[in-house]
């Protein structure tokens, strides 16, 4: 290569000189006078190079014999660069990846302000969308990671039985009781437990109805023997469930750290506390007031409905959503508090002289709360035109205030529901018939990860990210 071939072409000869480029197999011959119209671009700077070293700083390779410059770039996007040199404007097709296009024009030294007005707004809008999608992908990735960690924890608990007496039998019972749907016996137990819960709640409701009320010889209300039998049967079953799960639990110290086990305990605790209080009250007349405490404890039987969470994916997802949405719930309460305070003062100012139900600001709080949540009991209503306009504004503001945070909470619920379904599928497809053997030379986490490798297909988020990566690699080849 001679120095003459690398010099900048000047004068009349500049219009006739050209360079040959090869972009990923896409070959073109470009006139230097066209390239010089945009001196800050990579190809125009190539014309000003005085040595081969300076040329290789701008391209990937250079053939001295053929006077050809090589660029290892995507040939499918280079026609857009050629069109820019010919027209002076950039155009973006709808099927293009905005990130790839942005990186490509940045490599060639072409500024984004050369994008034509017909494509500029679409380009910048699409460029902002990946930020939102990236946030969603991170949320999905966090959900997938959490699901995978829960699977690993599940396998870790299952592995603990191998070191315990009667470990294989206890593990089967543990899987049958703690994983509804794992096998046919576990499904039967799950359905039976649901029926017992519903029967217990139904008898509690029927016992409060006057049609089923019974009086003793002294004219005092007493329990219906039929309802009492159902109640005792339900308590017996719930107690048996809790004790059985506790006896076969892989780790007794952490048993009551699980929310579902705490719910099981709370569902039976009022019954036994009531028995204890009744015995104490009968033995000591001075403690007769404890009977009122027993009545309150009887009402706590309604918490048994929460036992359905063990058998319902939706209820577990709802619990996880509320646990992880305290910021959104706090935001919702803050918005409501501001709205209630504002509209209650307005209603008090307008209606205090003509409306008996809105004579104080605390009374107006109730009206504003009912109106903003769009419940509308109708027990207190404004009578004047100004009051009705205020009520209309309160209702419209309530719709907006409630809808905004609810959307965020719903998105989290969808995320947790999808994660819970993936976790259930993974757990139901596990097989521990041959036991789980620890490998001393292998990290425990990596070992369990190897054991559940076949289950990773059910985690759609991870497979989706893998497919996206493959498609990106294919587009760059």
**How many strands, which pairing sense, and closed or not: the largest β-sheet?**
4 strands, mixed
Task: Report strand %.
Answer: under 5%
> What is the overall silhouette?
flat
How many strand units? 6
Helix content: 55-70%
Low-confidence stretches: 1-15, 131-146, 434-477
Helix and strand run:
HEEHHHEEHHHHHEEHHHHHHHHH
Report the span from N to C terminus: 31 Å
What is the topology, as strand order, of the major beta sheet?
A: 2-1-4-3
Radius of gyration: 36 Å
Could you explain the architecture of this structure?
Helices cover 62% and strands 5% of the residues. The chain is mainly α and 477 residues long. The strands form 2 sheets. Strands 2-1-4-3 form a 4-stranded mixed beta sheet. A two-stranded antiparallel ribbon has the order 5-6. The relative contact order is 0.07. Strand 5 and strand 6 (221-222) form a beta hairpin. The protein has helices at residues 13-16, 32-35, 42-47, 52-56, 78-87, 98-107, 117-159, 167-178, 184-207, 225-247, 259-283, 290-299, 313-323, 326-351, 361-372, 385-428, 444-451, 460-476; strands at residues 18-23, 26-31, 61-63, 68-71, 214-215, 221-222.
Which keywords apply here?
477 residues; mainly alpha; four-stranded mixed beta sheet; two-stranded antiparallel sheet; 18 helices; disordered N terminus; disordered C terminus
